[in-house]
Design goal:
By secondary structure, this protein is α/β, with parallel strands linked by helices. It is built from 13 helices and 12 strands. An 8-stranded mixed β-sheet has the order 1-4-3-2-5-10-7-11, sandwiched between helices. A 4-stranded mixed β-sheet has the order 6-12-8-9.
């Protein structure tokens, strides 16, 4: 079932995968409507068992160019995102999960990015980290130079150490996404990380320092729920690393050591978030074994302090 018409003259399509998103979707859609920008179509691809989220979304049909599609047969966020991208009318697309938001001025910023470099494979930016109530917890920055086209090697040798791209921040060409084969449906945790690397290979990448999106962390988030299967989590992180690492220039191969230590730290932090901190000393020991150059790379690219500090603030405030 689809409601509302397509927007053939749109310059940007926003794809919003939803499953039982009724708690958050009004916040996400309101943040889009508040931009007051023309030429943006919003595609809500909802797989929920009830129409609750879709009914809330319809309430924004007078403020947004909105298409709402009910697809209960699409069970994963990856399948809904891929389907939404194929429906997009605009040449450029971005994702917005129902629990994330746009910040004031994002539409204008994104339009300026695209006008300056329309053939870039990927435009990325930092994101604010927000709690379940929308309060700021910190900034999630990307360790990349800004205002210049970046090669695959420049991006990948950092991004393979840690996925530092919050999902609501990037903007990409629709044709590049489709040509890449879309999201890997078998990667329920690392599919976006894998996709950013594939898009980085599709053309120049631009990093913009403007903070224009809010990435919400909370206990009910999909990534929190999925990360509890740590055996599969490790397998998926290693798959992304081993898939893209061979494409780097030979002098970048020291990335592998920092990346594997980053995976060990991420697994230990995931366990610790569930009350099992036994793996933290061993993970710290792995960090301390790194050579100086690899250790600098590790701390530069993992954004470890930013990520951990935001979650600690949320726990202290009781807003996680």
């Amino acid at each position: 079932m689809t409601t509302s018409a397509s927007v053939p003259n749109s310059w940007l399509s926003v794809v919003m995968p939803s499953y039982q998103g009724e708690e958050w979707i009004a916040h996400a859609l309101n943040s889009l409507a508040a931009q007051g920008a023309d030429g943006i179509e919003v595609l809500v691809i909802d797989g929920g068992p009830t129409p609750a989220a879709r009914e809330i979304a319809r309430g924004f049909s007078d403020r947004l160019s909105l298409r709402i599609v009910a697809r209960e047969d699409l069970h994963s966020w990856q399948a809904k995102a891929d389907f939404g991208v194929t429906l997009a009318e605009a040449p450029h697309v971005c994702l917005l999960c129902v629990d994330d938001v746009w910040l004031p001025g994002r539409a204008a910023a994104v339009r300026s990015w695209l006008e300056a470099a329309p053939r870039a494979g990927l435009h990325i930016a930092p994101s604010a980290i927000i709690d379940r109530y929308g309060h700021g917890l910190g900034i999630w920055r990307c360790p990349l130079p800004s205002s210049c086209p970046l090669s695959f090697d420049t991006v990948a040798e950092r991004l393979l150490v840690q996925n530092f791209i919050a999902s609501p921040a990037p903007v990409f060409r629709k044709d590049a996404w489709v040509a890449s084969g879309g999201l890997d449906q078998t990667l329920w945790y690392t599919a976006d990380w894998d996709m950013w690397l594939k898009l980085a290979a599709a053309g120049a990448v631009y990093y913009h320092p403007e903070i224009t999106s809010g990435f919400r962390i909370h206990r009910k988030s999909l990534t929190m729920a999925l990360s509890r299967d740590r055996v599969e989590l490790e397998r998926q992180m290693l798959r992304v690393l081993e898939s893209h690492l061979p494409r780097l220039r030979p002098e970048s191969q020291d990335v592998a050591r920092a990346a594997r230590v980053s995976i060990a730290v991420n697994l230990a932090l995931s366990a610790a978030s569930e009350g099992d901190a036994r793996g933290l000393p061993a993970a710290l020991a792995e960090v301390l074994k790194l050579r100086p150059a690899a250790m600098r790379r590790f701390f530069r690219d993992t954004r470890l302090l930013e990520r951990v500090a935001a979650r600690l603030r949320a726990r202290i405030k009781g807003s996680f």
